Amino acid sequence: MINLITGEAGSGKSRLVCDMLCEEIEHGQRDVVLLVPEQQAVEWETRISSILPVSSNLRLEITNFTRLANTVFREYGGLSDTLLDDGTRSLITWKAMLSVSERLTTYKTSENGHGDRAIPYMLSAIDELKESGITPKSAEDALAELDGLNSSDGDGKGMFSSLVSRLSDAVNVYAAYSAILADGTIDRNDLFSKLADTLSSHPFFKGKAVFVDSFFSLTAAEEKILALIMRQADDTTVTFTCPSDNSASDRIHFGETKEYFKKVRFMAARENLTVKIIPLGENRRHSSSPELAAVEKKLFSPEELPKYHGEKKSADDVHIIKCADRYDEAEACASVILRLIREGYRYSDIAVVAHDIGLYEGTVDTVLRRHGIKCFISESSDVCASPAVRLVLAALSVASGGWQSSLWHDGPYLPQRYGPRSLREMYTETDGNLARLSANLFENYTYTWNIRGRRMYTSEPWTMNPDGFRKEITDGGREVLSLVNAYRDAVIKPLDSLLSLFGDGRGVASVREIAERIVVFAEEYGVAASLSAMSDNYRAAGMPREAEHAAKSWDYVCEILDKMVAVVGDSPLNVTRFSHLFSLVASDMDKGTIPTGVDEVVLGSASGVRFDEVKCVIMLGAVEDEFPGNVTDGGTFFE
């Protein structure tokens, strides 16, 4: 039996699934599997644990597609395969592009690194092909057919020339990528295909009741898995956030989910399975708030709302606040939260959402903390912005920029105790950070004398007057010169040891050698001690999220280097190309964070957070073209 539960958001689909699941556990004999998206798994586990006894875990499994693959592979084999992460996949894509560079046209790469910036685009194309269930062989066949149609035009420049060129590059890289993957490794987009292959020969779901909830669409591999579940299980129940009828307005609001609904019905018909459609009624979530129910129903309606001519009334559940800018929004947000707390709400009852909360980071969270409001930003952290990663990239940029970059003029990463004692004591009362003072004087000195090139930085100690073209050096000038030279020794010697691998900046070295030099460079700079002090300072300032990122910053560098050595360890690279690959792997390593407390206001982006139990939501940036933002198709193969 296939049960298809349809209904708009808030109509009670998940509640009905919960009731059916509990009924099966309490009065049935079959094992039960609940399949939900990754974001919903914890919520469902919390909900079920408050309803059913602990013994129910013997017959109930709440899972997502990734965890389901792990469970199936544990039982039937396949768990030993290593799942590639995004950084490793990017490096393999680079190797694939390099191996077929002579056959590439639009995204051609070369020894000097031209074309490497197309790596994310090529990886996106590979993902798109894999998610659509297209193998390298079928992609090559489609390319040949399209090329034939394109060549039929008499002028030799068919209407699909651009598409054929891009598709040809993607297919060539896709085939090379698949060939490079070693035995015992698996791409994340192949994981579900492997799961489907395993399920096709092993009846994992036989005799079980399966519930599938909270999905809006599925990839080709996930659809295949669902078809196998429906074929094997005794009962399968699937929910759809859309009505079961086919009105024009529904196609506007629920187009993607409608297609999902049609595909599941088709799969059931293909397997000759009995289908029961359970339509649910109106929104129950806002039954006690007609104002919120009206907004939910009419907000995106294609019909023009009639003008209201009656008496203006204040809304209790919907408030609109007009602000001058984001700083004004932050203050208004804090004011609303404080009012809600006085009314009896907890911090955890309140959520703040924006189209992109990153645009408000450093503004809203700072204002909330200043007002004593506990808050947490539910957003992946950018590894590229972590201190140790920035230090490595800045050091590499010195060589690639011909020793003209000032990005590495930063005191916090340098030894804190050097230079004349009199200067240190002299500036203790004003700054207390001699290294930062030295960095400023050093930068001014190199600018005054236009010092450029590695030879100038690594020559004998400087003797030019800090005051410029003047005959005599004052006593203050001598102390500044002494401090500048001390700073140069602390900075330049470890840096030159690292960058000497590349000679004048155009030389090459193996990735393994570069990685070893970076580790030595960090040890000489005292990075570990500096990061520990930085983490302690953040924690003392009441910023636990930033403290955690600072503490793990060097671990990120080690992880990046490990991946590069494992995949391209023997490849000779120049400094520019190594820096770009290092940055690329770092950008693929965005780290998620978990709340640092139980009772906190959660701030997040609309596309990445799930507010399940909150009672009050504050929307920031609700203006035209920002919230909701304009929808753009990120697909690869479009003319």
Secondary structure topology:
Blueprint lengths: L1 E5 L6 H15 L4 E4 L2 H12 L10 E4 L1 H12 L5 E2 L2 H14 L19 H13 L4 H16 L9 H20 L4 E2 L1 H14 L7 E4 L7 H13 L2 E6 L7 H6 L1 H16 L4 E5 L10 H9 L27 H17 L7 E5 L9 H7 L4 E4 L8 H14 L20 H8 L5 H15 L5 H4 L17 H25 L8 E3 H15 L1 H14 L3 H8 L1 H16 L3 E3 H13 L13 E5 L10 E4 L20
Parallel strand pairs: 1-7, 1-8, 2-3, 2-6, 4-5, 6-7, 9-13, 9-14, 10-13
Antiparallel strand pairs: 11-12
Helix pairs in contact: 3-8, 4-5, 4-7, 4-23, 4-24, 6-7, 8-9, 9-11, 13-14, 15-23, 15-24, 17-19, 19-20, 20-23, 21-22, 23-24
Overview of the molecule:
The protein has 639 residues and is an alpha/beta fold. 49% of the residues lie in helices and 9% in strands. It contains 24 helices and 14 strands. It has helices spanning 13-27, 38-49, 65-76, 86-99, 119-131, 136-151, 161-180, 188-201, 220-232, 248-253, 255-270, 290-298, 326-342, 364-370, 387-400, 421-428, 434-448, 454-457, 475-499, 511-525, 527-540, 544-551, 553-568, 575-587; strands at residues 2-6, 32-35, 60-63, 82-83, 185-186, 209-212, 235-240, 275-279, 350-354, 375-378, 508-510, 572-574, 601-605, 616-619. The strands form 4 sheets. A 6-stranded parallel sheet has the order 3-2-6-7-1-8, with helices on both faces. Helix 2 links the parallel strand 2 (32-35) and strand 3. Helix 4 packs across helix 5 (119-131), helix 17 (434-448) packs across helix 19 (475-499) and helix 21 (527-540) runs antiparallel to helix 22 (544-551). The protein is globular and about 95 Å long. The two termini are 43 Å apart. The model is unreliable at 405-432 (pLDDT under 50).
